[in-house]
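Below is just one:
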Amino acid sequence: MGISIADSPGKLPANSARLTDGLNVRQAHNSELFGIREGSSIQFRAESGSFVGFLNGSLQSRGGYNLSLQEGGSIPLVDFRLRPDPGNAMRLDVVSGDGKVWFYIDKLMYDLVNGNRVLAIYTADMRVSRALAERVGHPELIDAPAGDMEILTQVTRQGGGGVRGTTPSPSHYHGEQVVGQPAGVVYQADLFMQGISVSRVNSSNVTGPGGSGKVVFAPNSTLRNNVNAGSAATTISGQGSAGTSSALWTAWIPWHTKFSGNFPPYGNDQHPFLIWNLYRVNADGSIEQIGRSGVKHAWLTTNQGCAPGEDFDSQVLGRSCSDTYGTGNNDANEDLSFRSEIIPATNQWGRCHSLFDPGCVGNNTNPNPSDDGFVRRMVVNEAQISNTVNPGASYLFDSWYLARQDINIYNSMATITGTPTFSGGNWTFAGQANYRLGSVTDRWVENLPAGTVAQSSELAVGEGHAKVAVRVTNLGNGQWRYHYAVHNLDFARAQTAGSEPNLDVLSNKGFNQFRMPLPVGVNVIANKFSDGDLVSANDWTFSSAGGQLTWAAPAGASLDWGTLYLFSVTTDSPPKSGSAVITVAQAGTPSTFDIPVLMPAPDVIFKHGFE
């Protein structure tokens, strides 16, 4: 935006005391610290220990920033105030001494700690206000995240609303009997994705549609637990049957911070995980996954909008409760690890020898990993999102919460459409719309152009799920193009050592071959493979020998969970129903799976000239 920090008067030393020192709670790393003037205060509401919203007043910092603008002006944010937004009780405006709102704070992750004597806002998105975006000539960046804020403040006066409700007894975890119901009627876990928005959070060497710099996107993701309590009701409106759970009795979802202890019902620090991805649908109808994130470890739930009595613990998501992980939070270095550490179908984390516990000592010995060069972020190259390099392309972004024993993974994931746009030196994901629960592969085979037929098939086994979708387009002149999207959702044949809570995931490989019969007389005209990473060294090889269309991974490579690869072939034959084979990369039984697909078939009627 052309803004730099000229100086930071009043900034405290990095090791200054904080109100949560000595408590077993989260604290930000690599933050810049400022004190709060004791003469300033904000009133807020809490119900049963859950933060409801700000009321009035303001908090004033001791010190702050002097911001220099590219054209020579400046914005003084020294002794800035945090003031409740008059139109949104869950937002704080960042106000300079002249009363102008330059930023605002939202997506708060909060808790009342130390006997309700400290309001700990562990993280919140600090976003660009309209006034700031227009002041510096970047209107496209209104609401863009510019930073992350932690607020720790004493609660000096309180009524009765700060007391948490008692934990209901007996517990309501997945598989537990529902009291008063026939034997075998149990609570079931079914977590829903409720909403997604996407922001650019970082970049490197970007120059625009003709460039090759890196761009990092991250979502603001809101989830909601199932609402059912004995009868079916809609959890997510506007999504048809996908928005209503088949589980009539809602299970609690454990939400324990990593390394915080061992808790029911799994005897570990179980919590959900979050991943996100970016896909490009090319002008020829093919789909490529051009960006994929690491794994975000969830660590607290704010339990908004819960059913009565269901907000009793910030480490348990109760019935009907919602929670949001903001953009900055999802991009937090201390929460991001690797997909290779997770057994996705069971949602077990191999924390032994993980990024955070490399020595397998059972503690978080690496709480703030060093800068990873975007390795654990969702990174795309400018060429992958350029409208000049990819004319006629459209884009899909998905986000997915993985919760242990979730009975329906498809309502825990959702997609939105948008267009990567370069303006004023910045990339944005513009025009976000068309929110839809479900997998991107199912969405890809809908609303097909003329001359195209499609099919989507599912593999659902104990080791996980995968989808194989195909689009077949009649190109004319006796040619047909087949685009296959093989989407490994949560399939992994894992090798492990030890047991929870110190489980060690040695490998969690997916698939390493995709093939189908090539009938005699069918000629291959062209083929294509894309794993979306722009690295040719790990591309799969293609062969049409031996009566098979075969794509095979190089040694050591595999199509792992949360990942979609594109396999395309153009032939001189129309489609028929058939079966493709995917091969598991790790030894075991079965070694392959058959999945129904549309595949090339010889045109028997015209093969010998009969009409």
Notes: The chain has four helices and 39 strands. The two ends are 67 Å apart (CA to CA). Residues 3-154 form one domain.
